[in-house]
Design brief:
The protein is of the alpha/beta class. The chain is about 35% helix and about 25% strand. The protein contains nine helices and 16 strands. The strands form four sheets. It has an eight-stranded mixed β-sheet, sandwiched between helices. A four-stranded antiparallel β-sheet has the order 10-12-8-13, with helices on one face. A two-stranded antiparallel ribbon has the order 7-14. The longest helix is centred in the N-terminal third of the chain and has 24 residues, at about 1-25. It comes from Spirosoma fluviale. Keywords: Hydrolase, Manganese, Metal-binding. One of its GO terms (molecular function) is N-acetyldiaminopimelate deacetylase activity.
Length: about 400
């Protein structure tokens, strides 16, 4: 089976690259992936697989049944949405949509999973069980396409015993992959504060309630939530990226708006931390004569890789790739809505190396110059096929 999968991955590699290039040139934003979904559906039908369309509006689910399909079910996931970024790369497959770009590799994820569909469809009489292929919209935007697909039953009928996802990694050399057991990626909550006071002439501060000063105290004080209330063993990040005080040199405004993010890897601490932030911010504003409206948009949970599943998958990856090409990953405080799956079903989310310094392919995700070494796509499709088939064999 190993040799068959590698051979098919090599055979389909050029087609997978062309699929990725088509998707890269025609990106669509989160929850607007209509042409992408239509393209994926057409590709699946051409293979001989009829997908379920319209899941969470623009998502698809496809089933590849082997022998004895009810014996065990494994799910594989790819996300399909792009980002509101203007592409700066000068490549033949450059985005044709102004201000929209596949800057996070979702085109590679989707192309790889379509490659998996081709490989497994050919080999369907050589394995027992069922493989569910999940093509998901809206990973980049709350509430996250994963949460919506779960609500619409993507983890039911048939219910997978495990779920595997992969994501490009521009910090890992092409030809290598990375794994981490347990906690891996952070929960993500958005923070929106409006601090109100009484504005006026900056030369007469005694007649004002300065919201700029109040907001400054709040930002500094909120950091003590992390340094003094957070459990020491629980990684957390609190950052503010937007502070708008729309006054001028001699005019203090009536209000200040602040936006930030809170990230952690413990759901209990996550809720406790947010309660403490609201209480502290409102208390400071009141004590200084103003008020604070604190709104929190609840985002993705933290992503946890099931230890036993991840050890199995890593072992199979070593067999497919060689031990020297399988690396360990550090904790990462970025967010990923695959976390929703990981909270419901045993899951493993790993990284596919796409970096090639010799060719200048070194830019990080979410940047205008992001790109991948496309030789990684053969690995992406072949490895995922191998992992799925091997996971079906677990007793």
């Amino acid at each position: 089976m190993l040799d068959s999968i590698k051979s098919l991955a090599r055979q389909y590699a050029a087609d997978i690259v062309q699929t990725r290039r088509h998707l890269h040139a025609h990106p669509e934003l989160s929850f607007h992936e209509r042409n992408t979904a239509r393209f994926v559906a057409d590709q699946l039908k051409a293979i001989g697989i009829t997908p379920q369309e319209g899941v969470a509006d623009t998502g698809l689910v496809a089933i590849v049944e082997g022998r004895n399909p009810g014996s065990r079910v494994v799910a594989l996931r790819a996300d399909m949405d792009a980002l509101p970024i203007h592409e700066a790369n000068d490549v033949p497959y450059k985005s044709t949509v102004e201000g929209v770009m596949h800057a996070c590799g979702h085109d590679a994820h989707t192309a790889s999973l379509l490659g998996v569909a081709r490989i497994l469809h050919v080999l369907r009489d050589q394995f027992d069980g069922t493989i569910k292929l999940v093509f998901q919209p809206g990973e980049e935007k709350a509430p996250g396409g994963a949460s919506l697909m779960i609500k619409e039953g993507v983890l039911e009928n048939p219910a997978p015993v495990s779920m595997i996802g992969q994501h490009v990694a521009p910090n890992i050399p092409v030809g290598k992959i990375g794994f981490r057991e347990g906690m891996y990626m952070a929960s993500t909550d958005e923070l929106y504060l409006t601090v109100r006071g009484k504005g006026g002439h900056a030369a007469m501060p005694d007649n004002l309630v300065d919201p700029v000063l109040i907001a400054s105290h709040i930002i500094v004080a909120l950091q003590q939530i992390i340094s003094r209330n957070r459990p020491p063993a629980s990684p957390s990040v609190l950052s503010f990226g937007r502070f708008i005080a729309d006054g001028v040199t001699n005019v203090i405004p009536n209000e200040v708006t602040i936006q930030g993010t809170f990230r952690c890897m413990n759901e209990e601490w996550r809720e406790e931390g947010k309660k403490r932030m609201v209480k502290l911010a409102e208390g400071i504003a009141e004590a200084m004569g103003g008020s604070c409206e604190f709104t929190i948009v609840h985002g993705y949970p933290f992503l946890k890789n099931h230890p036993e599943l991840t050890r199995r998958v890593r072992s199979q990856a070593v067999e497919y790739m060689g031990a020297d090409n399988v690396v360990d990953l550090d904790l990462w405080m970025a967010g990923e809505d695959f976390a929703f799956y990981s909270q419901v079903v045993d899951s493993c989310f790993y990284r596919l190396g796409t970096r090639n310094e010799a060719r200048g392919i070194v830019s990080g995700v979410h940047t205008p110059t992001f790109d991948i070494d496309e030789s990684s796509l053969e690995t992406g499709a072949g490895l995922m096929s191998w992992l799925a088939v091997q996971e079906l064999r677990v007793v």
